[in-house]
Amino acid sequence: MRTAPTVLILPGWQNSGPEHWQSRWEALHGDRRVQQREWFTPKRADWVAALDAAVRDAPGDVVLVAHSLGCVLTAHWAAASAHTARVRGALLVAPPQLGREDSPPELIDFQPVPQQRLPFPATLIFSTNDPFSDAAWSRKQAEAWGAAPIDLGARGHINAESGLGDWPEARAVVTKWSKSPI
Which Gene3D superfamilies does the UniProt entry name for this protein (predicted)? Predict the structure, then answer.
C-alpha cells in the first residue's frame, strides 16, 4: 500500500498570511509550506530550486497546492525538473496573468508564463473578478496546462479576503489525489 503523499503548499508573491486558506490547511492538515528565501522580490531560479529540493526531500509522492505566482512556479518547475513523476496532482488557484500592463515589476523574472502541458493531473480554479487575471485568460491557461478548469464565480484573488475559510471544496480535490495511486 502506498503512503499518503506530502502536500506541498506553494504560496504566491509575498507569501500567504495566517487567514489565507493555504495557511489554514498547513495548520489543519500538517501540509508543508515550501519556504522561499525572498518573498517580495522573487527570483525564478531560486523559487524553482526550492520547489525541486522540497519534492526531492519529500518521503514519497507529493501533491502541489499552488496559489497565484505559485501556479506559475509550478509550470516553470515542471518544465525543468527530473522529479515530476513524483507529483500525483496539482491544485492551481488564481494564476496571475503576467505580462499585462498592470503586472507588478517584481514578477518580471517569471515571464513568460509557460504554455506547455503539465506532466501530471491538475485542476485550475479561477475567479471571474480576479484583479490579477481575467476569466478568459484563466480558461485558456487551464487548457494550455491540461488542467481541469473550475470557475469559482466572483471571489476576487481567491485569498484570505475571499471568505473561503478552510475551503473544504478545494481540499476535496487534494484528498482525491492523496488517496489514489499514480
Answer: alpha/beta hydrolase
Nearest to 145 by CA among 112, 120, 180: 120
Strand, coil or helix: 81: coil
- The DSSP call for residue 41 is S
The predicted model scores a pTM of 0.96
In a domain, 1, yes or no: no
Total domains in the chain come to 1
Q: Which of 28, 127, 27 is nearest to 68 (CA)?
A: 127
Q: Which CATH number do you get for residue 77? A: 3.40.50.1820
Measure the CA–CA gap between 151 and 124, rounded to whole angstroms: 9
Q: How many CA atoms lie within 13 A of 62 on its CB side?
A: 27
The verdict on residue 66 lying in a domain is: yes
Task: Give me the residues of the chain with pLDDT under 70, please.
Answer: 1-2, 180-182
The boundaries of the domain holding residue 102 are 6-179
Collapsing DSSP to helix, strand or coil, 94 comes out as: coil
Does residue 92 lie in a domain region? yes
Centroid of chain to Cα 149: 14
